[in-house]
Design brief:
Blueprint lengths: L5 H15 L12 H19 L4 H21 L8 H22 L1 H18 L1
Length: 126
């Protein structure tokens, strides 16, 4: 397995653990934190999928369907979780944000800013 693919595989495995953990295993958190987790998880899946050089359209369609399937499975598996349309919408927003984040980071401007930041960090350490 390519090192480029490993972060995506890790993110997929992490998503399976998080999305299908029984309610009893989910830590207590303030209201809305689950939406932040959904958003961040799908953002991570999109970014790592694109870093793995998966093609955008198949990746987006796959994650789009995974968002729906995960909610359906949460409602049907014996994990005491519920189906929430808002979670699906939040997953899709994370997918869009991750795609845009990767596009920006891959752009010439994003690379220039990253190089400038790394140069500044190296100067501060020296």
């Amino acid at each position: 397995m390519s090192l480029r693919v490993l972060p995506f595989v890790t993110a997929v495995l992490l998503s399976v653990v998080i999305l299908f953990m029984p309610r009893s295993g989910v830590p207590l958190a303030p209201p809305g934190v689950d939406k932040v987790v959904h958003f961040g998880l799908f953002c991570l899946l999109a970014v790592t999928g694109l870093i793995a050089r998966l093609r955008l359209l198949p990746l987006a369609i796959g994650l789009f369907l995974y968002a729906v399937a995960s909610e359906v499975l949460q409602a049907t598996l014996p994990v005491d979780r519920t189906f929430e349309v808002v979670d699906i919408l939040t997953d899709w927003a994370g997918l869009a944000a991750g795609t845009l984040l990767h596009a920006w980071a891959s752009s010439a401007r994003g690379r220039a800013l990253r190089r400038r930041y790394l140069r500044r960090q190296a100067d501060e350490e020296a």
